[in-house]
Request: fold
Amino acid sequence: MTSTPAYQLTDNPKNPQPANGGQACGKVYDTIKPDNRLSIEKSAPGRRALKFKGRLKHTAPPVPEAMKRKTSPRLPELSEFDTVRHFTRLSKINFSVDSHFYPLGSCTMKYNPRVNEDVAALDGFAGLHPLASDETAQGTLECLYDLQNRLCELCGMDAITLQPAAGAHSEFTGLLVAQAYFAHKGQKDRVEIIVPDSAHGTNPATASMLGFSPININSGPDGRVDLEVLKRHLGAKTAVVMLTVPNTLGIFESGIESIARMAHEAGALVYMDGANFNALIGLVKPGELGVDIMHLNMHKTFSTPHGGGGPGAGAIAVKKHLDAYLPVPIIKKEEDRFLADFNRPLSVGRVKAFFGNTGVLLKAYTYMLMHSARELGQIAENAIINANYAKALLKDSYPAHSKEHCMHECVLTPGPEMTAQGIKTLDIAKRLLDYGFHAPTVYFPLIVHEAIMIEPTETETRETIDEFAAAMKKISVEAVSDPQKVKDAPHTMPVKRLDEVQAARQPNLRW
Amino acid sequence: MFIANTNKDREQMLKAIGVGSFSDLVKQVPEKFLYPKFKLPGEGMDEMQAASAMKALAAKNKTLKSFVGAGAYERYIPAALKALLSRGEFLTAYTPYQAEASQGILQTIYEYQSSIAALYDMDCGNASMYDGASSFAEAVRATVRITGRKKVLYSYGIHPQYITTLKTYFGSGDNCRFIQIPHKDGCLDLAGLEMLLDQDTACIAVQSPNFLGLTEDFSRAAALAKAKGALCVAAADPVSLGLFSTPGAQGADFAVGEGQGLGLPLSYGGPYLGIFTCKKEYVRQMPGRIAGLTKDKDGKRGFVLTLQAREQHIRRDKAASNICSNEALCALGATVYLSLLGPEGLKELAQANYDAAHAAAERLCSIKGVNLKFKGTFFNEFALALPCDANKLRSRLIEKESIDPGLPLKDFYPDLGDTLLVCATETKTEDDVLRLEKAIKESI
Amino acid sequence: MPKPEEARYTKTHEWIAFEGAEAIVGVSDHAQHEMGDVVFVELPKMSQKLEKDKPCTVVESVKSAFDIYAPVTGEVSALNTVVTGEPAIINQSPLEKGWLFKMKVNNPDDLKTLMDWAAYQEFIKQGVH
Reply:
């Protein structure tokens, strides 16, 4: 039996169309031949690239007929050159940090040093099997051990796991640890997780994944947690208070000491979402703020590339009372020998197979080696300066949601003369693409109407921020002089605005 | 140090902001928390120092001829794949939130979904999960959501770390039950399954080739499950599908797998690639990102992230999963790999693996007292019963011969005694196999 | 199908109206406007028990998901499967072809506690969502 594809191509792939009807590309893509065919539409029967000629001899019977695959999978048949050209072309119709300013708020799109890539690709690291014995893996284990220690020190925490593969995966691990902690203490009735309304969507999603009830609390007028509101919700059922520091408005949770004290008095734990740790690195130790559990994102703060959506690597750092519950294995050192410790009877288990996203962790470790404590602090300082600088340059046309100085990112909104023309944040985002800038994060946090969230990061120059601000201002002028142009943007991308309604109503998810 | 601002820049920027010094910007942080003491090196390395320090550390890992598989496989990685993955335009992009400026990534995701769905013979797939184990756990979670039932039956041959991950994924607050299905010669025992299947069963979870290397035909098991209203989750190694019957053909509702073997390095456990596919009726139960084909305002073909209302950034506490970042670059690697292979190349590769493993098994079984533990058909690895302590043999061979002969199974399956899981992929030559044979023979 | 004036409305923008012994439930015209293009509708299950003001199903647009709350307590007795295949109907005809489900109502008097057409118009005008 073979399954029929659920969603067929709307165009007939057997009858490939001419390369995109000669549509002119805009200035950004002038040098790229317009050709939006899929690899399968470039396929020709019998065309080959990679071959495997080696055959080891044996006398065993071939695969029994009953177990054989009956139909050949529908994969493209291409030459190696076809493949290289196909994907090279695709790479060129894509914005990236290497090619474009990418001020996505909360995503920390900083430069990804190339030395990290070289290091992770070294045969000694890249070729190491995950089930290699500890004796075989001493180099990698040493790196991971030292990374554990340095990250703990940076966070002011006592223990850490590097197993989670990403930020959300870390949150999941962190709440698992909390759940195990309360279960072990006989407090299984602590089932509520308090989450401010400004939180990342992953926070409530993680809470409910584990069967916790997320309790959404409204932020105060300044965007911070309202201590009175918090107090009303804290109680014998509270397991964890989940905070993002600085919060998603880019401001520091100044009352965090009180929040932590109140939570602890109620018997609850404090979790810090470390997505915004770039604002604190080398400047503040979250452990000193009263945080019990926090996560880190290597692909944000620690400069590892995001690869178009991943892979990332995460970590969960905890205070001593939670150490025993971390997933296995934890890397330990005994005398001069490094080992993966599985002997942790209270551990929650594991959140993925094998160790973790080691290749990514090695990049983060290389980055750490290149910074002293003081230099790590300068990362935060310059991230904060750059965000405030962008905010200052834009203050006349894009009012900031918060009147205070921001930390590493700022949340702006379209000015009244723009909204009077019916210009939405989405229009501004799309128009920015025409000017060669990736859009900031838009419509987040949810508590700010038409939010534009800008995080320049410390690796951008003043000149780049100047150019970005100039483009933003130009758009605010265009919004009044030629609003339709802004509403129809982008004009120079390989495609215009896409029909997301059709995409969702009649999903076409494969050839 | 990768900070762009000079001291002069900083001064000018602070002036433009309207503050006298940096400390004015962080007044919102209580002063006592600022600039704590760190026990970290006072001096950072320069690039050359860091590169050479890391090179020295990499050299501390012992280079071996390794016959370990068990869910992660040493495979040849084509040069063209490495070159394409290192392109900054792919490497340093974020999730394609601005579709018009991210058509490259979006199209690769669409091509990935298409290739994987074709390979697994399933209706559709998502843009990737963290790894095989987390994909597996999410698929089982989906069956529990769909059926509203709380019992999960799993076969003996599922990767033990997948089972640990699965149990961890359900946390301690949930009352799901996980029960192992009896096995016969390492493969699922149908009679045993029938005894366990009932109206409370959410799904049966199976794997082929299983952890012990054996290929299992689970079509009858899937049919039995279906008759009881339960679903079938199947894990499969993607390369094996070049040769062996697919999850789709055998009746799986969800099919998952570890995609590392599709062109990704071993790297001590990650980043890997969680393959996640399902039948079309469960498309909205898929976690994570999904790319779809659509048209732009001018009617021109384009790609977007779609069905987003399932996801955490919209559905928040009611989302199918909390996954946000996935393994996009690894998925791109797999797409390039499958494009370089095509259907014929994949078949050839699968055959090469089958041959390498069978050649190795034949040689090793010629050693006195060494036998295959199970009778069934296997793909690229097999369980080898030894007449001596498997752990000691492994240590000895690593130390003396620089050969890692395979994974002792005692730690995973105490009931299997001194058994070694030996894997030979296309990277192994006749010489490698002879070396292994000789080393084992001399060490027993 | 009811005329808009004959239906009762909730604060969460569902409408409900009797048709014989059963009541029909859908979303108001105001609600479909707020949602934008509906791309997916999940219906409750047949015979599902519904509890007043508890979410019982979901309507999705491209960038949002909206919970639909049971207007009164009762049990699902019929489903409009047309909307699952063609969700745009909810935008085009929220009070007729775009109804969502029918239900047996435990206490018919419950409907009287909901807003009538005039009160609902006033409610929308006040912008209290």
Summary: Residues 96 and 110 of chain C are 22 Å apart (CA to CA). The beta strands of chain C are 8-9, 14-19, 22-27, 38-42, 49-50, 55-61, 65-69, 74-79, 101-105. The domain at 4-104 of chain C is CATH 2.40.50.100 (OB fold (Dihydrolipoamide Acetyltransferase, E2P)). Chain C has one domain: 4-104.
